[in-house]
Amino acid sequence: MGKIRGEIGGQITGTVGDVTITTWKGIKVVRRKRGPSRVPPSPAQQQQRQRFLLASEYAKEVGADPERKALYEALAKGQPTTWRALATQDYLTPPLIVRVDVDEYTGQAGQRIDIFVHDVTCQRVKVHLLDPSQGVGANNLGALVEEGEAKRAVEGQDFHWVYRTQVNFPEAQSGKPFRLLLEAEDLAGNKVTHTVEGEF
């Protein structure tokens, strides 16, 4: 791999003949043009290519939607990236629920449950509070006690969400189990679910 030093090459990148000029870790490099692979793609590679194709289509949709495009442009401002790259990455990366804090929850209405989600475009977090000791309920996880939408702890920021309980948990005595089923969804439409086991 040959390095281009000094002023040679300037801002030029691309392919000339069988030589490709590109930038790698901030350094101009020259390498032989890569030819088409003769190895047929594996199912995993085909699936990954399909995901990138769909991500590219999503970025085109964003470009045609001024409101969504403005959101990604705001995120890209001051960063070494573009709104299009962020939209593509957002499609490929679902939300990640990294922590759930139930320390203040004792089974009473009006108490808070804190949820932390790693995704800069998280749009909603829904909470299902379940009683695993009473029937199977939805998804065989327990009887539904209550459900509702969490709210952003700080308006405009998507990392920290807060859910306020609405009802008293039935028979919330010491040692009583409870279960949380959490759903997070981002701007690209990716949805994830996460369960948390707890007891009073």
State the main characteristics.
single chain; four-stranded antiparallel sheet; 3 helices; alpha+beta; 2 domains; 12 strands
What does this structure look like?
The protein is of the alpha+beta class. The chain has two domains: about 45-90, no CATH class; about 95-200, Immunoglobulin-like (Sandwich). About 20% of the residues lie in helices and about 35% in strands. It has three helices and twelve strands. The strands form three sheets. It has a four-stranded antiparallel β-sheet with strand order 1-4-3-2, with no helix packed on it. It has a four-stranded antiparallel β-sheet with strand order 5-6-10-9, with no helix packed on it. A hairpin with a 7-residue loop joins β9 and β10. α1 packs across α3 and α2 (about 65-75) packs across α3.
Brief overview:
The protein has 200 residues and is α+β, with helices and mostly antiparallel strands.
Q: Which helices and strands, and how do they pair?
A:
Blueprint: E1 2-3, E2 14-16, E3 19-24, E4 27-32, H1 43-63, H2 66-76, H3 83-92, E5 96-101, E6 112-118, E7 122-131, E8 143-149, E9 151-152, E10 160-164, E11 177-186, E12 191-199
Antiparallel strand pairs: 1-4, 2-3, 3-4, 5-6, 6-10, 7-8, 7-11, 9-10, 11-12
